[in-house]
Amino acid sequence: MHLLHPKSVSLFIALAAVMSSSLASMKPLQAIGASYMAPMYDILSKNYGAYDKSFSVEYRSAKFEDAIGSVAGNSADFAVVDLPLPRKQLEQANLLAFPILLTAIAPVVNLPGIQSDQLVLSGPLLADIMAGKVESWNAPEIKALNPSLTLPALPIKRIVRGPASGATLSFTSYLARYSNDFNKNIGIGQTVKWPGRTLAVADSNDAANAVNATEGAISYVEMDLAIIKFLKFVSLKHKSGQVLKANPGFLRGGVVSARASSSAADAPELTVIDQGQNWPILLPVYVVMKQTAVDDEKAKKLLRFFYWNFHTGDRAIEYWGLVPLPSSFQAKSIRIFRNVKSAKGTPLQPDFEFELAH
Q1: Percent composition of the chain: helix, strand, coil (DSSP 3-state, to 5)
Q2: How far apart are CA 147 and CA 128, in angstroms?
Q3: What angle do CA 7, 13, 15 make, to 5 degrees?
Q4: CATH of segment(s) 105-252
Q5: Longest Cα–Cα distance in the chain
Q6: Which residues have CB under 8 Å from 6's CB, separation 6+?
Q7: Where are the domains of the chain?
Q8: CB atoms within 10 A of CB 3
Q9: Among 164-178, 205-219, 342-356, which is the least confidently predicted range?
Q10: What percent of the chain has a predicted confidence (pLDDT) above 90?
């Protein structure tokens, strides 16, 4: 039996401590939020990980309230959500939020013999369908917009979101814009009371799966998820006569305007200008993180990750059918997250002066 010399034991312990510290510093950052954003953050974190070998992200899907609670309770480093938080709620929980990208909300259907983008609906007609006023897919109103299609004699089955969601907020905003009746009787909201018989599901993945499993179904989901799930998109006929398709060309051409917020703690307000040249239903996606860092080095690493992706992530974002923020919005978001403070309450001051990849 060979015994280690005491100096060797001390050296071994010291090396083990260094290795343990190194491994700890390489632990993945914890992200939580909307399920449809998981593939996106897997790609973005791997891209940045090629630059910073110690960087990785573990992403967990969760409901909006659980995601925000996890960040506030320090069990996650940041949340990715599609609902804005009121300033008061942010301040009470020591949080800040800023937009990171945009996604498109698209109506999708499951109709035998009808391919993606073939079915054309107008804003007013889509509003009547979602209000339960048009009940069959071969109704005269639908035939009038689709004279060349053989529409099935199937009942329309509406699949909607049960819990609060940014998708519902964005979708109902679009429908209310085109139908005074919809605006008056159903309204705009994160949750609304859909008249008649509907199937309410928990989240985007459940909506996509339900559409795929149900002939005659119509729902509204994020475009990137619809692509992954091979769902069939509905084209939208603008009042100008232009037919808009849910594809990256119409997304990239989107015109987005902003109104500066009254406080650096508030995310900029994003408004889609619907002029018939771009997909009209866009949804901002926000990052929520601690206003005061729990771990300064982790917070600096996270902010560098966001900064990096504002400069290099557009191609990956567009690949997944998402919309990069215009540069003016990126600048606003950067100004917001520069307000993150160290654990001692002093300015965090992360180093953003790295060489950007091209």
Answers
A1: 40, 20, 40
A2: 19
A3: 100
A4: 3.40.190.10
A5: 91
A6: none
A7: 105-252
A8: 7
A9: 342-356
A10: 66
